[in-house]
Amino acid sequence: MSDKEQQVSRRQFLNYTLMGVGGFLAATVATPMLGFAIDPILKVGGDENMVAVGDISEFGKDYKRVDFKLTIKDGWAEYDRVYSAWVRVLDNGEVQALSPVCTHLGCTVQWSPDEHPNQFYCPCHDGLYDENGINLPNTPPTAPLAVYQYEVREDGKLYLGQAISREELG
Ligand code: FES
After folding, report:
1. What ligand 1 atom has the least distance to the C-alpha of 122?
2. Where are the domains of the chain?
3. 102 lines ligand 1 (CB under 6 A)
4. Which atom of ligand 1 sits closest to the CA of residue 140?
């Protein structure tokens, strides 16, 4: 083999090596981007975004506070967010799951503190709601507390989803 043939061979080897490494790097960068771009399309009919917050037998006529984490899908973004709810079961078996977020300026309401028995009280501006979460006249909140979507499933667990304003509920 002549020197010239050997030089060409080395050049080719370098070319192949560079193309291989370049191709590998491009695939490494492109694959996650492609997955990110089409992931929501592949998840048609995916998560229903409701989570179990406990066995329904754990809830009674008085409100109990539960904290839970929901996965929020916002366009292509997906993230976890922690929520709280005041939950009770009415005599007719219906579940009331209320958001503790005050509809005035977003503080957290408390259920039945000593000075306001059987009412939701917001300490920020003395907001008051009745036991069904309806805002009381002459207090700052202008709308009732939002209501969580819920389901009691065959496994006996209570599942909560997104909170919906009473206006949206109709
Ligand atoms: S934030 Fe609740 S009364 Fe103002």
Report:
1. 2
2. 3-42, 47-169
3. yes
4. 3
How large is the average pLDDT for residues 126-136?
98
Count of C-beta atoms within a 10 Å radius of residue 118:
10
**Residue owning tokens 């899908």:** 73
Contact yes or no for 145/103 (Cβ under 8 A): yes
Query: Tell me: the pLDDT tens digits for 52-88?
Result: 999 999 999 999 999 999 888 877 888 899 999 999 9
Superfamily of domain 47-169: Rieske [2Fe-2S] iron-sulphur domain (2.102.10.10)
Report which DSSP code applies to 99: -
117-138 average pLDDT score: 98
Q: Is 69 in the pocket of ligand 1 (CB under 6 A)?
A: no
Confidence band of 28 (pLDDT split at 50, 70, 90): confident
Q: How far is the CA of 136 from the centre of ligand 1 (A)?
A: 12
- Nearest Cα residue to 148 out of 136, 135, 166: 166
Sheet of strand 120-122: strand arrangement: 110-111, 120-122, 127-129
Cα–Cα distance, 150 to 159 (Å, whole number): 5
